[in-house]
Amino acid sequence: MSEKKLRIGELARLVQVSQDTLRFYEKHGLLTPSLRSQAGYRLYSQADLERVGFILSAKRVGFTLNEIHDLLGLEVTKDDKSCEDVKRFVDEKLDNLNQRIGEMQRIQKTLKTLSDACCGGAEPATHCTILEALNAQAESGPIPRRLL
Amino acid sequence: MSEKKLRIGELARLVQVSQDTLRFYEKHGLLTPSLRSQAGYRLYSQADLERVGFILSAKRVGFTLNEIHDLLGLEVTKDDKSCEDVKRFVDEKLDNLNQRIGEMQRIQKTLKTLSDACCGGAEPATHCTILEALNAQAESGPIPRRLL
DNA sequence: TTAAACCCTAGAGTTAGGTCCAAAGTCAAC
DNA sequence: GTTGACTTTGGACCTAACTCTAGGGTTTAA
Ligand SMILES: [Zn+2]
Ligand SMILES: [Zn+2]
Ligand SMILES: [Zn+2]
Ligand SMILES: [Zn+2]
Question: Which domains are present in chain A?
Fold first, then answer.
């Protein structure tokens, strides 16, 4: 019982990207289907499917395809690298990630504060607290610190 | 005592972007210096400085320039909009942000787990747990669920 | 009064990450 | 045995967000 292989269209539908994108990832060494059919059709395994998942996840959180490539490709040079090297690479990404999460949380707080302060009513937004805050600088005053 | 104005080079140095980038932001309506000198030099106010800060912050957390433009530009159409509209816009971004933060935290966990499991030693990484995990799929096994 | 270090505009070029053909082969079903 | 939905390749094209170049004006300090 060999596992079910997916053709490119099926995989594309499954993970919600275009076939072109999958071929693009292949061209850039991120995802090579584990098999081809007689006719040359790409056949993707479950492992390939999960790999796409990883790629898309990493992409959504802001890794570039190059970084993802490096992450996935660490093993190619494994004989030249020490555990120390590999760990450093991952830890670097991790630091980066932590910083970005922190920044996002700050912006989140800002937006939340703004949103909470707005009445959300149906009348024209001429008095809207959100607009006032965002717009403070247009009146030549500084943007309130809580916005930054 | 009018406030100190910055020329483009000073501002660029201060916020660590190129002068071209500042001019680019201007061309796209994100940041218009509040004043020009006799000679046509851009003069940026403290408010302008803070606006750049906001732009860069928002950018770092993954807003596109278009989104930032919309955020900053809400007030232009304020007479056509209700508080409800404005609040909805912000809440939408907020949802988006929350989702992305969640995803980043998942990846963070993954990387942390990997990093913690690696010995970090100086010997060749042929046995490295990180590489084994990332590479599980290359041996046709699935990537461990904790990686996704 | 001239050299160095700034600034201006317009417009071309670049990179990442796709997206869209065109021409042709393949496979299932009717 | 042909229609229709799939697939292949190669290459042109696209958008976002810069980045660079050319050709010129300005400011300041020696
Ligand atoms: Zn209101
Ligand atoms: Zn409001
Ligand atoms: Zn080790
Ligand atoms: Zn290791």
Answer: 1-61 (1.10.1660.10)
